Amino acid sequence: MVYLRAMLAHQLHPDLIECGTDEAGRGCLAGPVTAAAVILPKDFANDLLNDSKKVSAVTRKELRSLLEQSCLSYGVTHVFMEEIDTINILNASITAMQRSIDKLTPLPEHIAVDGNRFKSFKDIPHSCIIKGDGKYLHIAAASILAKTYRDEFMENIHEEYPMYNWKKNKGYPTKEHREAIRKYGITKYHRKSFRLLPEQFALDFK
Q: What is the pLDDT of residue 10?
């Protein structure tokens, strides 16, 4: 017997212009935190679209292409390491989402945010939904765009510093990544405000 997964809900408020927004890379040691915001057409339907962590890399790339062609509007924003180190990762994540929303045309009448933290933006009402990327299509769409754009960035800078294997770990704190930091020190892409090694806070900058 084949079980089909039910499609996610479209949005919270069907009568409003509503965007979904999400971020990727919040827990990484290197690279930007990346956010996206998406407004989908009212008749959009796709039973493959889900939380980016629940679909394969191949499917994510296919969904990115589909979403870019079919969504009413989308915005993607990187907030880079220097700003993360200045304003902290939570504020950087929210900033990335707000800048992505600001790129939308038209601006939404309501914002659906993945997670439990956000700050009011241009007096637009918002709702925070825990695990929203697995509940609503527009938040799932934002999670796909944020993840694929960030992965692409990390794969590009991997060529500059291949010893950290960012092509595979995408900057997350894997054992291999930490061992490379221990051996080679840090780069301009590392977040210096993060605890990069458990036993060491001050690391040589390369």
A: 94
Of 198, 148, 162, 142, the C-alpha closest to 29 is 198
Cα(25)–Cα(53) distance, integer angstroms:
12
φ and ψ of 142, to 5 deg: -65, -40
Q: Spell out the alpha helix ranges (H) of 13-80.
A: 57-70
Consult the annotation and say whether 22 binds a ligand.
yes
- Alpha-helical runs (H) found in the chain: 57-70, 81-87, 89-102, 137-158, 166-169, 175-184
pLDDT: which is higher, 80 or 4 = 80
Q: Could you report the per-residue pLDDT of 127-141, keeping only the tens digit for each?
A: 999 999 999 999 999
In the chain, where are the structural domains located? Answer: 18-152
- 123 labelled as ligand-binding? no
pTM for this predicted structure? 0.91
Percent of the chain exceeding pLDDT 70 equals 93
Q: Domain 18-152 in CATH: superfamily?
A: Ribonuclease H-like superfamily/Ribonuclease H (3.30.420.10)
Model pLDDT, residue 5: 58
Query: What single-letter DSSP state applies at residue 38?
Result: E
Q: How many CA within 13 A on the CB side of residue 11?
A: 26
Does the annotation place 47 within a ligand binding site?
Answer: no
The tokens for 59 are 């499917």
